[in-house]
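In the laboratory, one determines a bound structure by crystallizing the protein with its ligand and collecting diffraction data. In a computational setting the workflow is compressed into a single prediction: the sequence and the ligand go in, and a structural description comes out. We illustrate the idea with AHG.
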Amino acid sequence: MAIRFSSEFAKNITDNTIRAAVLETVTALAGACKQISHICARGPLEQGLGAETGGANTDGDAQKALDVRSDEIITKALETAPVAYYASEEQDDIVTLAASKPLALASDPLDGSSNIDTNVSIGTIFSMFEAKDNAADSFLRPGSEQICGGFFVYGPQTTLVITAGAGTDTYVLDPDSGDFELALAAMKIMPVSTEYAINASNHHHWGAPIRAYIEDCLLGVAGPLAAKYNMRWVGSLVADANRILSRGGMFMYPGDDRDGYGDGRLRLLYEASPVAFVIEQAGGAATDGTRRILDIPLGTLHQRVPLVFGSKEPVQTLGDYYKKQDIL
Ligand code: AHG
Ligand code: MN
Ligand code: MN
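The predicted complex, in structure-token form:
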């Protein structure tokens, strides 16, 4: 056993075969991520986890040893799970495991790679669909068709934040039992917050709406937003998402004018969509600035998307800055 599910988990999935397949696949994934967590906990004792392999993924990111190793561990775990197709940040194309099986899974095997050698929280993100009759159609669809999604965080605790469409729960890997135990059920994000997360060093690359919004936050109580703001930026999406789930806030990775960053840095299929699913199920919001992330159809496997998510009120306020911009 790797995870002790709550009795309510995935109860909304009415097809018993699919529900059983989801539970079996999450269990297989939890076993794989326990292995990744163990490797992360050994850090430098594991020789060069953060070392570049010399390879690059489709998105052009230099691959680190732990990126590749995590992808191998997950691929192996899925070979015995009810998964037909696997799409990964670290693989150019979709992997067909067994076309007759019922599910399709997409993953960012190691999120936050720039933090691997710094002992900062990193993680694994995953998104699950019912498989269609071919690999491409199983993933080239809107994120609203996910049946399960979430992420593992390898930090002071190893946690699993997950939803199957009926609320967001957090499981914690109990170092004593070796199992993931339910710790926080039906999580709710604070609707209002004055804490935001953005890589502020990109300020001169941003478009006008984001620049105007951040500048108004920086004006604090005397500014148009009339509040004192705080800022956090981890550089691991899973860590920022986990903090926002636990105490509110808003994460922004907008498009900017750097080469290749017109749609930001984060990928729709295996980063933005599963995080948006978890955040919405906890009562928050997730957009590309104006459009709901889960409504955006996937055109290409590693497609990037600008990502804004978190407490409903600031996501809405930022959306108004974009709308004002459209009117100008
Ligand atoms: P990955 O390591 O899978 O490429 O993801 C890193 C992402 C995300 O985790 C994080 O929020 C973002 O990159 C940080 O981007 P910058 O380094 O540009 O701030
Ligand atoms: Mn990532
Ligand atoms: Mn990654």
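Residues 3 and 174 are 10 Å apart (CA to CA). Keep in mind that any predicted model is a hypothesis to be tested, not a measurement.
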